[in-house]
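From the methods appendix. Each design record in this collection lists the tokenized structure first, followed by the designed amino acid sequence. Records were kept in a plain field format so they could be parsed without special tools. The example shown here is representative of the layout used throughout.

RECORD:
FOLD TOKENS (165 positions):
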């Protein structure tokens, strides 16, 4: 229950960062997906069953903020978090580098899933060029920013998940 509450707090922080920070700060015109980064780091660090379902809410918030088709990010976040929950033993070594590598790989997977869904809905959609021009650079950027997010998550865990006396 405490991990669920912690994830909701980071979900709201990610929404705030997506709204405010992405409006003023963009590297190369890329908007960082803070919600996905927080959810991936939490999913890699905890094996709570509720985290992929919180990821659905995070995806729906991303859909609402992108003014796109509702449900695409919700589905892609859910599938990505389920896969990262299953594959976390491969990536997880409790180091910043391993979690950064996992976020990089899962960000590429999430981008590919969402672009595949978009390609199914729109027939004249050039998926390969969008993967190469936006998904890969964004995944690398998110992988580089992951240690800062992981440090925030560790701070939140020590502050909110400490043992109750």
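DESIGN:
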């Amino acid at each position: 229950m405490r991990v669920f509450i912690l994830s909701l707090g980071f979900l709201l922080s990610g929404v705030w960062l997506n709204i405010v920070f992405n409006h003023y700060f963009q590297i190369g015109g890329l908007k960082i997906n803070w919600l996905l980064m927080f959810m991936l780091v939490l999913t890699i660090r905890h094996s709570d069953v509720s985290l992929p379902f919180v990821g659905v809410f995070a995806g729906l918030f991303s859909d609402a903020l992108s003014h796109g088709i509702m449900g695409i990010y919700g589905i892609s976040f859910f599938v990505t978090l389920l896969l990262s929950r299953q594959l976390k033993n491969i990536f997880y070594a409790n180091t910043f580098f391993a979690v950064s590598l996992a976020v990089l790989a899962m960000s590429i997977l999430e981008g590919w899933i969402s672009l595949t869904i978009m390609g199914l809905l729109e027939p004249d959609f050039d998926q390969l060029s969008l993967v190469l021009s936006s998904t890969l650079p964004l995944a690398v950027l998110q992988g580089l920013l992951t240690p800062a997010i992981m440090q925030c998550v560790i701070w939140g865990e020590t502050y909110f998940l400490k043992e109750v006396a």
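APPENDIX NOTE: The chain has six helices and no strands.
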